[in-house]
């Protein structure tokens, strides 16, 4: 149908139109007479897809040679466990920086394998990042873990934590590919794919070489970073069709101008949305402190209350704004603005927000 549809879903999220067109085009025949999904993962054709995906990830992010890139399964949640299982050789305890739902889940999962220390007491509401000078970092921790963009709470780091040599582990699931960052500051960077990297089904892991080689004896093979490095992410059957789409999304990012273009785009989109919220004279509000507001996943609500939120969401849905409802844990409204979402689409949303306000004084 020709009805306007704008997808603000937080994940699985919008995939660039051009990518979907290409997938459709190549669905029945990827150039060798059969579909990509029918191709052996041991074929030379698939090896090319796998290598291309990994090489593009390295190129776009600027990953140094002493880091390995792994494409694994198990989602972001799988990596909550695999990070601990692969790094616990460094010690029996790890530091966790809790800034929202996802870092909290990661800490709970890791606590099955090692002693988890909270760098600051778990806040009642996740809407700010306590000043770094107040953090209680343990110099003997196996690693320090944080989530760069809390998808549910809308809290994003504007700095890289200083850990004085302790390996830094970061979950960038919802903001990878949206800005340049200095990989050399990190031990491990994890990201599930279903936000900025394509459909769900793979988790991309970046790991510094010197941290490899000593997985816990209890680590399942499918979570073993050392084995995956040796096997070039082909230890067992990967989600081949998803890796293929992942590679097309990376190609698309490159054609758009890479991370510099993605960063400019997310800056423009988020500044526009936040300006409309702050110019609304209290009609709309965002619960997050200004210095850590996410450029990517923006939670907001109507100050008139949950009934007003409902009416807003109902009308938005009718106009084709999809998946704007806030996460079930926090309610309200959430606009996820990943790379595939255009500035024009955000303009249409803010126009609706303004007219909705005018109609409901
Ligand atoms: N980390 C972050 C920041 C997320 O947003 C999510 C999912 N929304 C996850 C981890 C968990 O990912 P998965 O559902 O693939 O396990």
UniProtKB/TrEMBL annotation:
GO terms for biological process: L-serine biosynthetic process. GO terms for cellular component: cytoplasm. Pfam families: Aminotran_5. It catalyses: O-phospho-L-serine + 2-oxoglutarate = 3-phosphooxypyruvate + L-glutamate; 4-(phosphooxy)-L-threonine + 2-oxoglutarate = (R)-3-hydroxy-2-oxo-4-phosphooxybutanoate + L-glutamate. Keywords: Amino-acid biosynthesis, Aminotransferase, Pyridoxal phosphate, Serine biosynthesis, Transferase. Coiled coil: none annotated. InterPro entries: Aminotrans_V_dom, Aminotrans_V_PyrdxlP_BS, Pser_aminoTfrase, PyrdxlP-dep_Trfase, PyrdxlP-dep_Trfase_major, PyrdxlP-dep_Trfase_small. The keyword Electron transport does not apply. Pathway: Amino-acid biosynthesis; L-serine biosynthesis; L-serine from 3-phospho-D-glycerate: step 2/3. One of its GO terms (molecular function) is O-phospho-L-serine:2-oxoglutarate aminotransferase activity. The keyword Ligase does not apply. Its EC number is 2.6.1.52. Its cofactor is pyridoxal 5'-phosphate. It is an enzyme of class 2 (transferase). Residues 6-349 form the Aminotransferase class V domain. NCBIfam families: PRK05355.1, serC_1. Belongs to the class-V pyridoxal-phosphate-dependent aminotransferase family. SerC subfamily. This is Phosphoserine aminotransferase. The gene is LOC112682192.
